[in-house]
Amino acid sequence: MKVDGRHFRSIWLEPDGWSVGAIDQRLLPHEFVVARIESVEAAADAIRTMLVRGAPLIGATAAYGVALAMRSDASDAALDQACKLLIATRPTAINLKWALKEMQRALRPLPLSGRVEAAYARAGEIAEQDVAINKEIGQHGLALIEAIAAKKPGELVNILTHCNAGWLATVDWGTATAPIYLAHDRGIAVHVWVDETRPRNQGASLTAWELGHHGVPHTVIADNTGGHLMQHGMVDVAIVGTDRVTANGDVCNKIGTYLKALAAHDNRVPFYVALPSPTIDFSIDDGVRQIPIEQRATEEVATMTGRTADGRIETVRVVPEGSPIANYAFDVTPARLVTGLITERGVLKAERNALSCAFPDRASGY
Fold it and tell me: Is the pLDDT at 317 greater than 70, yes or no?
């Protein structure tokens, strides 16, 4: 996608052929800074500190991290250590585990002399695959938006999204945003309600930034506004992303997603989840009981960062000193609340049979 008219991806191989460039998402929307990742330790730190974030992008970053590790030491021990370091960074997004397995599968049978080239090649393939998948997700989601637009000619299609499932969360295009970008580019009048997404404000700082640069009409709202909008007929469809989907269609996404799904169900608003197939975890069935929910630093809740009137970037505390804080990063939306899963192979029911039939190659391993 574009930033000030220039095409960017969220991650790329630098012209030197070995180091990795990535947009530092911690600084958006106030500063646009490109970070250079030169080691597996730096890749792990980028994931851990959320310099990069979003399940598909985490997977791509981990793949490049393995390639960087192989450049320093291509031994089995180094490969194992790199994967151990990277898998420990974020527990919830399954794409991380998938990407590391793909890298191990590609490299383990090879002689040491061929591993560096193969590692960079496979990491590049994972990145390109993500872009292609997201374009397909966009096409399938576009059909849903077109159908809504056909029922209300001349009116806006109002879409609600939560967190950032845009191109910043993937390598390009995004998952939940891909249909929106395609609809906008086709001339369909769309408007996006952007949940702020506390505590890290990925909606307000990242999704709004993306949509603004692409020219998509949008409005940032407080996290608890969605239900009110749905009650008053101001939301036609909700489309969100996900960090992990279970074999039976339960969806784990940014904290607050479950509440949006409940409000959508109560108001008969379609609730769709957009995801690439590597986000499906066929090894588990019960999202609430089996998906590990990351608990992040309390400072994310206690403080907020923004630009002051005189242009300075400041972080301030908004919670009283001494008040205990809990920071659960994700929640699980049961499959029964999901209207459909928008994947690269079509819009599927949130159920085991639909997922396994669409992706038999993935399901057969479990």
Answer: yes
Superfamily of domain 2-129: translation initiation factor eif-2b, domain 1 (1.20.120.420)
Whether 243 sits among the annotated catalytic residues: the reply is yes
Question: Quick one: pLDDT at residue 366?
Answer: 63
243, 250, 281, 331: which one is catalytic?
243
Percent of the chain with pLDDT over 70: 99
Domain ranges of the chain: 2-129, 137-363
**pTM for this one?**
0.95
Contacts 24+ apart (CB under 8 A), 356-364: 356/247, 356/282, 358/277, 359/277, 359/280, 362/277, 362/280, 362/282, 363/247, 363/282
The residue with tokens 């193969």 is 118
> What would the mean pLDDT of 32-50 be, rounded to a whole number?
97
Looking at domain 137-363, which CATH architecture does it have? 3-Layer(aba) Sandwich (3.40)
